[in-house]
Protein backbone atom coordinates (compact mmCIF):
# COMPACT_ATOMS: atom_id res chain seq x y z
CA UNK A 1 0.00 0.00 0.00
CA UNK A 2 1.39 3.40 -1.04
CA UNK A 3 0.79 6.32 1.28
CA UNK A 4 1.02 9.75 -0.34
CA UNK A 5 1.78 12.45 2.27
CA UNK A 6 -0.83 15.21 2.28
CA UNK A 7 1.85 17.89 1.98
CA UNK A 8 3.87 16.19 -0.78
CA UNK A 9 3.13 18.79 -3.47
CA UNK A 10 4.35 21.61 -1.26
CA UNK A 11 7.43 19.64 -0.20
CA UNK A 12 8.37 18.92 -3.81
CA UNK A 13 7.87 22.57 -4.74
CA UNK A 14 10.18 23.68 -1.96
CA UNK A 15 12.77 21.01 -2.78
CA UNK A 16 12.75 21.96 -6.46
CA UNK A 17 13.20 25.60 -5.49
CA UNK A 18 16.57 24.61 -4.01
CA UNK A 19 17.45 22.01 -6.63
CA UNK A 20 16.95 24.25 -9.66
CA UNK A 21 19.77 26.50 -8.44
CA UNK A 22 22.28 23.65 -8.63
CA UNK A 23 24.10 23.11 -11.97
CA UNK A 24 23.46 19.72 -13.49
CA UNK A 25 21.64 17.67 -16.09
CA UNK A 26 18.62 16.42 -14.12
CA UNK A 27 15.39 17.83 -15.58
CA UNK A 28 12.63 19.24 -13.38
CA UNK A 29 10.21 16.37 -14.02
CA UNK A 30 12.99 13.89 -13.21
CA UNK A 31 13.90 15.71 -10.00
CA UNK A 32 10.29 15.83 -8.85
CA UNK A 33 9.88 12.13 -9.61
CA UNK A 34 12.96 11.35 -7.52
CA UNK A 35 11.41 13.35 -4.71
CA UNK A 36 8.21 11.34 -5.06
CA UNK A 37 10.17 8.09 -4.82
CA UNK A 38 12.07 9.30 -1.76
CA UNK A 39 8.89 10.30 0.05
CA UNK A 40 6.61 7.40 -0.80
CA UNK A 41 8.57 4.17 -1.13
CA UNK A 42 7.00 1.64 1.29
CA UNK A 43 10.31 0.03 2.29
CA UNK A 44 12.88 0.22 5.06
CA UNK A 45 16.48 1.28 4.59
CA UNK A 46 18.25 4.37 3.33
CA UNK A 47 18.52 6.39 0.14
CA UNK A 48 21.73 5.73 -1.79
CA UNK A 49 22.93 7.94 -4.64
CA UNK A 50 25.74 6.86 -6.96
CA UNK A 51 26.96 9.84 -8.96
CA UNK A 52 26.42 13.24 -7.36
CA UNK A 53 28.35 15.61 -9.69
CA UNK A 54 27.55 19.11 -8.36
CA UNK A 55 24.72 17.94 -6.14
CA UNK A 56 21.54 18.54 -8.13
CA UNK A 57 19.86 15.22 -7.34
CA UNK A 58 21.52 15.15 -3.90
CA UNK A 59 19.80 18.39 -2.91
CA UNK A 60 16.41 17.15 -4.09
CA UNK A 61 16.70 13.82 -2.28
CA UNK A 62 18.15 15.30 0.91
CA UNK A 63 15.53 18.05 1.06
CA UNK A 64 12.71 15.52 0.88
CA UNK A 65 14.42 13.08 3.23
CA UNK A 66 15.05 15.81 5.79
CA UNK A 67 11.41 16.91 5.76
CA UNK A 68 10.06 13.40 6.31
CA UNK A 69 12.78 12.25 8.72
CA UNK A 70 14.11 9.51 6.43
CA UNK A 71 17.70 9.73 7.59
CA UNK A 72 20.73 10.93 5.64
CA UNK A 73 21.12 10.44 1.91
CA UNK A 74 24.28 8.44 1.22
CA UNK A 75 26.05 10.03 -1.77
CA UNK A 76 28.99 8.34 -3.53
CA UNK A 77 31.13 10.06 -6.16
CA UNK A 78 34.88 10.25 -6.91
CA UNK A 79 34.27 13.72 -8.38
CA UNK A 80 36.59 13.11 -11.30
CA UNK A 81 34.04 13.90 -14.02
CA UNK A 82 35.20 16.08 -16.90
CA UNK A 83 31.74 17.45 -17.63
CA UNK A 84 30.79 21.12 -17.75
CA UNK A 85 27.28 22.52 -17.41
CA UNK A 86 28.30 25.82 -19.03
CA UNK A 87 28.97 25.76 -22.77
CA UNK A 88 32.37 27.17 -23.62
CA UNK A 89 33.52 27.39 -20.01
CA UNK A 90 36.69 25.63 -18.78
CA UNK A 91 36.10 22.27 -17.15
CA UNK A 92 37.30 22.10 -13.53
CA UNK A 93 39.49 19.18 -12.49
CA UNK A 94 36.93 18.14 -9.88
CA UNK A 95 33.30 18.87 -9.02
CA UNK A 96 33.92 18.27 -5.32
CA UNK A 97 34.06 21.91 -4.18
CA UNK A 98 30.95 22.77 -6.19
CA UNK A 99 29.18 19.77 -4.66
CA UNK A 100 29.97 20.85 -1.11
CA UNK A 101 28.93 24.42 -1.87
CA UNK A 102 25.60 23.20 -3.29
CA UNK A 103 24.85 21.31 -0.08
CA UNK A 104 25.75 24.32 2.07
CA UNK A 105 23.70 26.74 0.00
CA UNK A 106 20.66 24.44 0.13
CA UNK A 107 21.09 23.88 3.86
CA UNK A 108 21.20 20.08 3.59
CA UNK A 109 24.82 19.28 4.47
CA UNK A 110 23.86 17.58 7.73
CA UNK A 111 21.39 15.38 5.84
CA UNK A 112 24.01 13.91 3.46
CA UNK A 113 26.53 11.17 4.25
CA UNK A 114 29.13 11.67 1.55
CA UNK A 115 31.76 9.21 0.32
CA UNK A 116 34.46 10.75 -1.90
CA UNK A 117 35.18 7.45 -3.63
CA UNK A 118 34.30 5.09 -6.46
CA UNK A 119 31.18 3.02 -5.85
CA UNK A 120 33.17 -0.22 -6.01
CA UNK A 121 35.29 0.93 -3.06
CA UNK A 122 32.15 1.36 -0.95
CA UNK A 123 30.19 -1.65 -2.21
CA UNK A 124 33.02 -4.01 -1.26
CA UNK A 125 32.09 -3.70 2.42
CA UNK A 126 28.49 -2.44 2.21
CA UNK A 127 26.00 -4.16 4.54
CA UNK A 128 23.10 -1.70 4.99
CA UNK A 129 19.56 -2.08 3.57
CA UNK A 130 18.55 0.33 0.79
CA UNK A 131 15.07 1.68 0.12
CA UNK A 132 16.00 3.77 -2.94
CA UNK A 133 19.02 3.05 -5.14
CA UNK A 134 19.63 6.00 -7.48
CA UNK A 135 22.32 5.29 -10.11
CA UNK A 136 23.72 8.20 -12.11
CA UNK A 137 27.44 7.47 -12.16
CA UNK A 138 29.73 6.03 -14.83
CA UNK A 139 27.52 5.59 -17.89
CA UNK A 140 29.71 3.00 -19.63
CA UNK A 141 28.29 -0.51 -19.55
CA UNK A 142 31.04 -1.74 -17.22
CA UNK A 143 30.55 1.23 -14.91
CA UNK A 144 26.74 1.04 -14.71
CA UNK A 145 26.88 -2.73 -14.29
CA UNK A 146 29.38 -2.41 -11.41
CA UNK A 147 27.19 0.22 -9.72
CA UNK A 148 24.11 -1.98 -10.03
CA UNK A 149 25.75 -5.27 -9.05
CA UNK A 150 27.50 -3.69 -6.09
CA UNK A 151 24.33 -2.50 -4.38
CA UNK A 152 21.13 -3.97 -5.90
CA UNK A 153 21.26 -7.07 -3.71
CA UNK A 154 20.94 -4.78 -0.69
CA UNK A 155 17.56 -3.45 -1.80
CA UNK A 156 14.82 -3.96 0.75
CA UNK A 157 11.63 -5.68 -0.45
CA UNK A 158 9.35 -3.05 -2.01
CA UNK A 159 12.35 -0.72 -2.41
CA UNK A 160 13.18 1.00 -5.69
CA UNK A 161 16.03 1.18 -8.16
CA UNK A 162 16.23 4.10 -10.59
CA UNK A 163 18.81 4.77 -13.30
CA UNK A 164 19.35 8.09 -15.02
CA UNK A 165 19.85 8.45 -18.81
CA UNK A 166 18.29 5.11 -19.70
CA UNK A 167 16.61 6.74 -22.71
CA UNK A 168 19.64 8.66 -23.89
CA UNK A 169 22.00 7.09 -26.42
CA UNK A 170 24.50 5.87 -23.81
CA UNK A 171 25.20 2.13 -23.42
CA UNK A 172 25.39 1.53 -19.67
CA UNK A 173 22.05 2.65 -18.20
CA UNK A 174 19.80 1.20 -20.92
CA UNK A 175 21.55 -2.18 -21.05
CA UNK A 176 21.59 -2.63 -17.27
CA UNK A 177 17.95 -1.57 -16.95
CA UNK A 178 16.75 -3.89 -19.71
CA UNK A 179 18.95 -6.90 -18.95
CA UNK A 180 19.12 -6.83 -15.15
CA UNK A 181 15.82 -5.20 -14.18
CA UNK A 182 13.11 -5.48 -16.83
CA UNK A 183 14.03 -9.09 -17.64
CA UNK A 184 14.15 -10.16 -14.00
CA UNK A 185 11.16 -11.51 -12.07
CA UNK A 186 12.81 -10.12 -8.94
CA UNK A 187 11.26 -6.79 -9.93
CA UNK A 188 7.61 -5.76 -10.12
CA UNK A 189 6.20 -2.48 -11.36
CA UNK A 190 8.56 -0.59 -13.68
CA UNK A 191 8.55 2.32 -16.08
CA UNK A 192 10.22 5.44 -17.39
CA UNK A 193 9.96 9.12 -16.51
CA UNK A 194 11.78 11.25 -19.06
CA UNK A 195 15.16 9.46 -19.09
CA UNK A 196 14.82 7.74 -15.69
CA UNK A 197 14.18 4.01 -15.71
CA UNK A 198 12.64 2.85 -12.42
CA UNK A 199 11.43 -0.42 -10.92
CA UNK A 200 10.24 -1.80 -7.61
CA UNK A 201 12.08 -4.71 -6.02
CA UNK A 202 9.43 -7.42 -5.52
CA UNK A 203 11.26 -10.73 -4.88
CA UNK A 204 8.11 -12.37 -3.49
CA UNK A 205 5.63 -11.59 -6.27
CA UNK A 206 7.54 -9.97 -9.14
CA UNK A 207 6.19 -12.57 -11.54
CA UNK A 208 2.80 -10.84 -11.36
CA UNK A 209 4.40 -8.04 -13.36
CA UNK A 210 6.22 -10.20 -15.94
CA UNK A 211 3.92 -9.23 -18.78
CA UNK A 212 4.25 -5.49 -18.23
CA UNK A 213 8.01 -5.66 -17.77
CA UNK A 214 8.36 -7.77 -20.92
CA UNK A 215 6.31 -5.21 -22.84
CA UNK A 216 8.63 -2.43 -21.69
CA UNK A 217 11.74 -4.54 -22.31
CA UNK A 218 10.78 -5.23 -25.92
CA UNK A 219 10.49 -1.53 -26.65
CA UNK A 220 13.49 -0.40 -24.61
CA UNK A 221 15.77 -3.12 -26.00
CA UNK A 222 15.39 -1.59 -29.47
CA UNK A 223 17.46 1.35 -28.23
CA UNK A 224 20.45 -0.77 -27.20
CA UNK A 225 22.02 -1.11 -30.69
CA UNK A 226 22.03 2.69 -30.99
CA UNK A 227 23.59 3.37 -27.58
CA UNK A 228 27.31 4.09 -27.84
CA UNK A 229 29.92 6.22 -26.15
CA UNK A 230 32.20 6.32 -29.18
CA UNK A 231 30.12 8.38 -31.60
CA UNK A 232 27.07 10.62 -31.44
CA UNK A 233 24.01 9.60 -33.40
CA UNK A 234 23.31 11.51 -36.56
CA UNK A 235 21.33 11.29 -39.76
CA UNK A 236 19.04 8.33 -40.34
CA UNK A 237 20.30 6.43 -37.27
CA UNK A 238 19.30 9.35 -35.06
CA UNK A 239 15.84 9.41 -36.64
CA UNK A 240 15.48 5.65 -36.05
CA UNK A 241 16.55 6.03 -32.45
CA UNK A 242 14.05 8.81 -31.78
CA UNK A 243 11.29 6.78 -33.43
CA UNK A 244 11.93 3.78 -31.16
CA UNK A 245 12.17 6.03 -28.10
CA UNK A 246 8.86 7.72 -28.95
CA UNK A 247 7.12 4.37 -28.50
CA UNK A 248 8.17 4.11 -24.86
CA UNK A 249 5.83 5.75 -22.32
CA UNK A 250 7.95 8.25 -20.38
CA UNK A 251 5.67 11.06 -19.25
CA UNK A 252 5.81 12.40 -15.72
CA UNK A 253 3.66 10.41 -13.30
CA UNK A 254 1.48 12.03 -10.68
CA UNK A 255 1.61 10.38 -7.24
CA UNK A 256 -1.78 8.78 -7.90
CA UNK A 257 -0.72 7.44 -11.33
CA UNK A 258 2.52 6.05 -9.92
CA UNK A 259 0.70 4.44 -7.01
CA UNK A 260 -1.74 2.76 -9.39
CA UNK A 261 1.12 1.20 -11.38
CA UNK A 262 2.48 -0.37 -8.18
CA UNK A 263 -0.86 -2.11 -7.63
CA UNK A 264 -0.47 -5.74 -8.85
CA UNK A 265 -3.82 -5.51 -10.65
CA UNK A 266 -2.26 -3.02 -13.05
CA UNK A 267 0.23 -5.66 -14.18
CA UNK A 268 -2.41 -7.53 -16.17
CA UNK A 269 -1.90 -5.34 -19.22
CA UNK A 270 0.71 -2.73 -20.28
Spans where pLDDT lies below 50 across 5 or more residues = 84-90, 266-270
Topology-level CATH name? Rossmann fold
* Count of runs of 4 or more consecutive helical residues: 10
User: What structural class results from the helix and strand content?
Assistant: alpha/beta
State the strand order across the main sheet: 3-2-1-4-5-7-6
Which radius of gyration do the C-alpha atoms yield? 18 Å
How many distinct beta strands?
Answer: 7
Mean pLDDT: 92
- Give me the CATH architecture, please: 3-Layer(aba) Sandwich
Overview of the structural elements:
With 270 residues, the protein is an alpha/beta fold. It has one domain (8-82, 90-268): Vaccinia Virus protein VP39 (Rossmann fold, 3-Layer(aba) Sandwich), CATH 3.40.50. It is built from 10 helices and 7 strands. Helix 4 links the parallel strand 2 and strand 3 (112-115). The longest helix is centred in the first third of the chain and has 13 residues, at 28-40.
Key terms for this structure?
270 residues; alpha/beta; Rossmann fold; 10 helices; disordered C terminus
Give a brief rundown of this model:
This protein is an alpha/beta fold. It has helices at 8-19, 28-40, 56-68, 96-106, 119-123, 141-151, 171-182, 210-221, 235-246, 255-262, and strands at residues 46-50, 73-76, 112-115, 130-135, 155-163, 187-193, 196-201. 46% of the residues are buried.
Question: How are the SSEs placed, and which strands pair?
Answer:
Elements: H1 8-19, H2 28-40, E1 46-50, H3 56-68, E2 73-76, H4 96-106, E3 112-115, H5 119-123, E4 130-135, H6 141-151, E5 155-163, H7 171-182, E6 187-193, E7 196-201, H8 210-221, H9 235-246, H10 255-262
Parallel strand pairs: 1-2, 1-4, 2-3, 4-5
Antiparallel strand pairs: 5-7, 6-7
Helix pairs in contact: 1-2, 1-3, 2-3, 3-4, 6-7, 7-8
Amino acid sequence: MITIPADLAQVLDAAWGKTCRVPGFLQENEARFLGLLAACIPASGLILEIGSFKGRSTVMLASVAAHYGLGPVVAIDPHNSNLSTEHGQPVPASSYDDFLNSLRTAGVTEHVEFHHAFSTEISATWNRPIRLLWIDGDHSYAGAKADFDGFAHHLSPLGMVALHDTLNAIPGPIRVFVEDVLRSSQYGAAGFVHSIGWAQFRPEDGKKFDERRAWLARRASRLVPFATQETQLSGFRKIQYKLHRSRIPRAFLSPAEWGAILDPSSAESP
